[in-house]
Design a protein that fits this description.
Quinone reductase that provides resistance to thiol-specific stress caused by electrophilic quinones. Homodimer. InterPro entries: Flavodoxin_fold (IPR003680), Flavoprotein-like_sf (IPR029039), FMN-dep_NADH:Q_OxRdtase_AzoR1 (IPR050104), NADH:quinone_OxRdtase_FMN_depd (IPR023048). Its EC number is 1.6.5.-, 1.7.1.17. The protein is an alpha/beta fold and 214 residues long. It has a single domain, classed as Flavodoxin domain (Rossmann fold). 34% of the residues lie in helices and 14% in strands. It is built from five helices and five strands. The longest helix has 23 residues, at 191-213. The protein is globular, with a radius of gyration of 18 Å. The relative contact order is 0.17. The mean pLDDT is 97. It binds flavin mononucleotide. Flavin mononucleotide is lined by residues 10, 12, 16-19, 95-99, 138-141, 179-180. The site of flavin mononucleotide has 17 residues, from helix 1.
């Protein structure tokens, strides 16, 4: 039974573009057949705590003697890693907040990126290797390649680094630029470009869900 893990982190529960697109991914996935299951984790509605103990960044055998994390936090970490390893594919809504990812999403990353567990120290046998993850990143300004702000995206590069390079997941990225074109007057001239960016993202999300779920 193909299982999708669906993560959202937008604090906007009414007009969020990333929520619209991850929902489109989920609906497309579910539409592929009755066996296509979805596990939902809304990191904004049900935020995780910040990582409470540095020892949680390391598997038990790699901790120092003084690192003894709270068993409840270890339990939560095991639950989150279990959701990730148990999924056949992952979709993550990742809006840009102050040039970086929402702190709610960063907290999830801090829990699941574990040296000696999800990232084996000898580099072999990565449990998440090849697992597809689709990052849907929305941003008010324009960060497309070649634009003046292109180097100011600190959402997608760190997610690629951690999920792709470190955990070995197979990363696809869908971005939407200029989502604030209808709100901020200086961006109003770019309304058509914004609409094009969103339309292209809808197509990309549907295609990815259909391909990855087949
Ligand atoms: C707290 C906060 C910080 C933001 N910081 C930025 C930013 O640094 N750069 C930018 O282009 N847009 C920024 N925005 C705009 C959002 O990236 C944009 O509204 C995006 O569409 C949010 O994703 P969502 O539609 O899925 O909620 C910010 C919005 C919020 C609420």
């Amino acid at each position: 039974m193909p299982r999708l893990l669906h993560l959202d982190s937008s604090a906007d529960l009414e007009t969020s573009v990333s929520r619209e697109l991850t929902r489109l991914f989920v609906d497309t996935w579910r539409g592929l057949g009755p066996g296509h299951a979805v596990v939902e984790r809304d990191l904004h509605r049900s935020p995780l705590p910040h990582l409470p103990d540095a020892g949680l960044h390391y598997a038990p055998q790699l901790r120092t003697d003084s690192e003894r994390p709270d068993p409840a936090a270890e339990g939560l970490q095991a639950e989150l890693i279990g959701e990730l390893t148990g999924a056949d594919a992952v979709v993550i809504g990742a809006p840009m907040y102050n040039s970086s990812m929402p702190s709610t999403l960063k907290a999830w990353i801090d829990f699941v990126h574990v040296v000696g567990t999800t990232v084996p120290v000898d580099g072999s046998g990565k449990p998440l290797a090849g697992k597809p993850v689709t990052i849907v990143s929305t941003r008010g300004n324009n960060y497309a390649p070649g634009t003046a702000s292109a180097s100011g995206d600190f959402v997608v590069p760190p997610l690629r680094q951690v999920l792709g390079d470190s955990l070995g997941m197979s990363v696809s990225v869908v971005t939407v630029d200029l989502t604030l074109a209808n709100r901020l007057p200086p961006l109003a001239p770019f309304a058509a470009q914004a609409a094009e960016s969103l339309a292209a993202a809808r197509v990309a999300v549907r295609d990815l869900a259909a391909t990855l779920g087949s």
